[in-house]
Amino acid sequence: MLAQQRQQAILERVRRTGGVRVADLVRDLGVSDMTIRRDLEVLAERGLLEKVHGGATVAGPGSTEEPGFAAKSVRQQQEKEAIARHAAHLIRPGSSVALSAGTTTWTFAHHLVDVPELTVITNSLQVADVFHRAGRPDQTIILVGGVRTPSDALVGPVAVAAIRSLNVDVLVLGVHGMSLRAGFTTPNLLEAETDRELVAAAQQLVVLADHTKWGTIGISSIARLDQAHVVVTDTGLPEPARAELADQVGELIVAGSAQNEVTQKEAL
User: Fold this and answer.
1) Is the model more confident about 46 or about 127?
2) Which residues, 6+ apart, have CB-to-CB distance to 19 below 8 Å?
């Protein structure tokens, strides 16, 4: 396959799925890692895609743009992993936990499969699949119904009706953006409605959001900042933003910071 043909194939996949991983392209196209990275560089220089750590996504976000799960899964992977690892210490065995849809909550789910006797409620097909593959008989997984979104969330009247009948110990919420004015937001109106029901069903709200979410505003608000009992973010969040966020939420955990590493170890 010529370089031009290969780059066209890459571009078509990005447009179809919203994002690609370098490792997947190396395997599927049968070329080297370096070749794929050069192809992505060429396409990025032409403004046809956006290079991110480990892959590429479509460019040009807006308040109503909703990237697909594949597109978001290649963004801030190291930060999401650090956030998920820290947040897992907040979940006690035997508790009921709701997980919203998103790649950060999906990463977090991988850290929960070893927590015994959990009841997990989710509107995320991807999150449910993590627990299904683990196959633990002591964990109960409840997947609500609904209409599927680009981020593999199930939303709408069916999802809302199911969630309204439930009460959970903690909701772990992934968000598109967060700001002082708009709070925690999403670009999908139906997903916002479903997430608001999840917030109402939970005794505690834990929000997982990497530093790129600060200042990003989706079209619909899910909750105010001061409704969050805990927000877990990463060290990429600037100090002024940390101060503003910490002033609003119950507790701010910065994954990867020395102080929180000590705190988490003492909690174990």
Assistant:
1) 127
2) 52, 55, 56, 57, 58, 67, 68, 70, 71, 72, 73, 74, 75
Three-state secondary structure call for residue 79: helix
pLDDT for the residue 63: 42
| Distance (Å) of CA 175 to CA 31, 216, 244 | 36, 10, 18
Q: Give the contacts of 7 (CB within 8 A, at least 6 positions apart).
A: 39, 42, 43
Sequence-separated (6 or more) residues with CB below 8 Å from residue 118: 91, 93, 94, 95, 96, 97, 112, 139, 140
pLDDT tens digits, residue range 202-236?
Answer: 999 999 999 889 888 888 999 999 999 999 999 98
pLDDT at 247: 96
CB atoms within 10 A of CB 229: 17
Q: Are 111 and 86 in contact (CB under 8 A)?
A: no
Domains of the chain are: 3-60 (1.10.10.10), 70-264 (3.40.50.1360)
What would the pLDDT profile of 32-65 be if each residue is shown by its tens digit? 999 999 999 988 887 778 788 888 886 655 444 5
Q: CA–CA distance from 25 to each of 39, 116, 178 (Å)?
A: 11, 37, 33
pLDDT at 189 over 60: yes
Across 66-182, where does the E strand assignment appear?
A: 96-99, 119-122, 140-143, 147-148, 154-155, 168-174, 177-179
Amino acid occupying residue 103: T
Please say whether the beta carbons of 212 and 239 come within 8 A.
no
